[in-house]
């Protein structure tokens, strides 16, 4: 398999973490790309020019993180990343919404220097703050396995700290922050921290 990736993308990170958790990391050739550079080989794999993109051994091109995770659960060993039922998937959805909003801000800033103070920017920051609070509530008293909710929560918190270091995101989600710290030495967490 071949994975087109960027080390700062939270969508890439959830796939990379799943690959490590499932013991599939060594079976994947990872190519780091600049999603803004329109590399022809990358665009051949994904005409939308978005990461992550996974090309399977059979040549199928999977172009969205959740579709890639579905494929990894189908072909890879346990643990299943997408297991856990509606409550678990709901928590994962909240976390994905948080980092999706953060990515929207980063992209918005490329075209509008005052993006943060405009209508869309204000809504995206609200989504990040409220999402972290709701995610923290979802972590209350939960027995936490290391599936998509945990992976997405760690990814959300780390991405906000990486992109917006001037804000105290951990104060909004103390349970998630404590869980993240408890997992700091886990290879999937340690080896995928965003770096720019």
Automatic annotation (TrEMBL):
What domain of life does the native source organism fall in?
A: Bacteria
Every copy of the GST N-terminal domain together lies at 1-80
Q: Which Pfam families match?
A: GST_N_2
Residue stretches in coiled coil = none
Would you tell me the protein name for this molecule? Answer: GST N-terminal domain-containing protein
The organism that produces this protein has a lineage beginning with: Bacteria, Pseudomonadati, Pseudomonadota, Alphaproteobacteria, Hyphomicrobiales
